[in-house]
Write a structure and sequence with these properties.
Blueprint (H helix, E strand, L loop, with lengths): L1 H7 L7 H23 L30 H37 L1 H15 L3 H12 L3 H27 L3 H8 L4 H9 L4 H24 L11 H8 L7 H28 L1 H14 L1
Amino acid sequence: MRFSILKRLPSAWRRPLAVTGALVTAFWLVVVLAAPLLAPHDPLAQDLPRLASPGAGHWLGTDELGRDVLSRVLYGARISIPLALLLVVLSLLVGGALGACAGFFGRWVEETVMRVADLVFAFPTVILAMVVAAALGASLQNAVLAVLVVSWPSYARVTRGLVMGIRSREFVLSGRLLGFSPWRSLRVDVLPNVLGPLLVLATLDIGTATLLLSGLSFLGLGAKPPAPEWGSMVAAGTQQFDKWWIGVFPGLAILTVVLAFNFLGDTLRDALDPGTARTIGAEKERVA
């Protein structure tokens, strides 16, 4: 029964990396929803032995304040992953809307949006995010805003290119001849045809957003103690190099989330690209 269900899936979703990405993502989503039930201790409680190595009583050890590392990693998922998802959604909405208007209307709209995007692209992503976060003040909310500032231009540029390739297609011109307003034509005829590539970009960007947010917290520009955020936990681990478990396990959590969403993004791209899907099928037939 289980194998028959797998056979009904598109070939791209039956690949090992796709299955691995889906399972890891599902695991972390369960952790986000059920962290209070899964965590063995209060992530803020300081009632355990300090700097205890991983063992039966505390599987991932404890930190310098006697807090359970496993509980903090589980609760950290409730901070890092939802904020990364929120950040990607906001970047998609802002960048997609601006890019769609730039690609469809052109002229001064395109010039304005693209020059602002080029201005953001002129600076290294991490450096600009650090500058914005430092200017706004150290907090998770400001870290999200800082990453949003450096993330939306990529969506704007991709959306603009896709819209420019579609706006002169026959079905769009036919709608305009039938009396569609520019806004209705953009909403009804153009945007549904660019959602696939944008969805792929957004899925790949979830891992990047998680990494950037954790990086800002690592530098002291994001989460503030005692919040159980992965980046700040890794930063605490750098102060205790001989107590490797303090920084290794939250670092592994970041690594698995980034890899899982990258696997899902690659699989989604293959599934939405007929040419790639046919290539995968031909390779499997040749191997068989």
